[in-house]
Amino acid sequence: MRIARSVTEDRVRDAFPYMETDAQWAAYTIGDMRAKASALIERGYPEPERGQLLAAYRDEARAPDGADVFAVVARRRGWIARLRKDLSGAVRTEIRGERATIVTARGTRYPFRLRDNGIWGMTIFTAELAAEAERATRDLAVVTAAAADYQRGRRDDGAAWFDGGVFDGGVFDGGVPLVDGGARAPSLAIDAGPSRAP
After folding, report:
1. What whole-number distance in Å separates Cα of residue 195 and Cα of residue 198?
2. Is 0.85 surpassed by the pTM of this model?
């Protein structure tokens, strides 16, 4: 079984293609949300909050793609040790239509769903990945609002930072600076949807 071989040989990201589609989308979303939040924190947060949050988000934010995010989360939550113990002793497979279950010698049941590409995708971690993706999306909304607050605070001091530059003085329209006689400066608005796909 490819998943068992991947985790036994410590190639966790290689197990990612054998997760169901919703789990894969969740992993990509986690990476995107953490990367976007980290960019805002890097530009707009003061210390010590900047360092603390960047450290908390670093692994997922720097992960190149969904497979690497999955590997980070799997190691952190102990899924790898669990899979190594269980899947090395698979005793039978039950298939019913587009659903399948691998039963291990320890009595653990691992459910799978047939994906559109014909590959069986493990579903046991989908709910946790989806919950983590929702949490990362909420965190991004909080970070976006806090970054805007910090920027408004800098405005009150006579200078606001936007996209790495300094805006000295000027007029603000709803929290967004107006420059060059009324042109809007770059916005902090973030698209919360995933930009990477499995």
Report:
1. 10
2. no
Cβ contact 83:3 at 8 Å? yes
Residue type, 125: F
Q: At what angle do helices 49-62 and 66-76 cross, to 10 degrees?
A: 120
Instruction: Please tell me the distance from the alpha carbon of residue 192 to that of residue 198, in angstroms, as a whole number.
Output: 17
Reported confidence tier of residue 198, pLDDT bands at 50, 70, 90: low
- State phi, psi for 42 to the nearest 5 degrees: -60, -40
Residue type for position 171: V
Tokens of 47: 């210390």
Assigned token pair, 153: 């605070």
Give pLDDT, residue 105: 83
User: Within a 10 A sphere around the Cβ of 118, how many other Cβ atoms?
Assistant: 6
Which parts of 45-125 fold into alpha helices (H)?
A: 49-62, 66-76, 79-87
- Given a contact cutoff of 8 angstroms between Cβ atoms, the answer to whether 12 and 59 are in contact is no
Cis-peptide into 48, omega within 30 deg: yes
Distance CA 14, CA 45 (A): 36
Structure confidence by residue, pLDDT tens digits, 46-71: 999 999 999 999 999 999 999 999 99
Residue 168 confidence class, pLDDT cut points 50, 70, 90: very low
Bridge partners (DSSP) of residue 78 are none
Tell me the average pLDDT of the chain.
82
